[in-house]
Specification:
Elements (H helix, E strand, L loop, with lengths): L3 H12 L9 E7 L5 H10 L4 E5 L7 H4 L16 H13 L3 E7 L4 E9 L5 E6 L18 E6 L2 H14 L4 H21 L6 E4 L2
Parallel strand pairs: 1-5, 1-6, 2-5, 6-7
Antiparallel strand pairs: 3-4
Helix pairs in contact: 1-2, 5-6
């Protein structure tokens, strides 16, 4: 079984010698819900000088917008994110000295504006999210922003196990946790895997 350090090494090898096109080098780390993107992104950032992680989750649309649009049960799908705001912010991160970011509070299911900061000392930003390499209208345009793109590939069976465990950890009973994982997360995971642009690196979890 490969370790987080093994997978981080794959990404670091691809990053080596890749200069930033803007003020900062941007590494896109895409993968399905429950694939381990956050853990791997932190491992990569820890081994690069002056690097930080930027999660895409801060750009979730609020429930007050999703509910009247009938999208609340699909929260986490591509159409439930502020894609335009996310793309504009990533472009700013590449060029501007200081950028403030929203952060998603999963316990409360809300995004908090201005809760994180990228400063002039930051040289590399590892951007992690489900749809960074999605081959759909609008999303595929994000590819022009990345200096290095990575897809984290995890078998669906393992994703199911992890996602059910995640919802159990948030206090849902077994039936509701399974419903949350299989009713929304896994369809999103399949969408990520089946509709993606080619990336510089594919990292296999197993």
């Amino acid at each position: 079984m490969r370790t987080i350090d093994d997978m981080a090494a794959d990404i670091l090898n691809a990053v080596a010698g890749r200069p930033a096109r803007g003020r900062r080098r941007l590494i896109a780390l895409a993968g399905a819900p429950g694939s381990g993107k956050s853990t791997l992104a932190e491992a990569v950032a820890a081994q690069l000088p002056h690097a930080v992680v930027m999660p895409m989750d801060g750009f979730h649309l609020d429930d007050r917008l999703l509910e009247p649009a009938g999208l609340l049960p699909r929260k986490g799908a591509p159409e439930t994110f502020d894609r335009g705001g996310f793309a504009a912010t990533v472009a700013r991160v590449a060029t501007e000295e200081v950028v403030y970011l929203p952060v998603f509070d999963r316990a409360r299911e809300i995004a908090i504006a201005g809760a994180s900061r990228i400063g002039p000392e930051t040289e590399t930003v590892v951007v992690e999210g489900n749809y960074l390499c999605l081959d759909e209208e609008g999303w595929r345009d994000l590819g022009a922003l990345w200096d290095v793109s990575v897809f984290l590939d995890v078998p669906v069976e393992e994703l199911e196990r992890r996602l059910i465990a995640r919802w159990l950890g948030f206090g849902f009973d077994a039936a509701r946790a399974r419903e949350k994982a299989l009713g929304n997360d896994i369809p999103n995971a399949r969408r990520v895997a089946e509709r993606r642009v080619e990336t510089d690196v594919t990292v296999h979890w197993a």
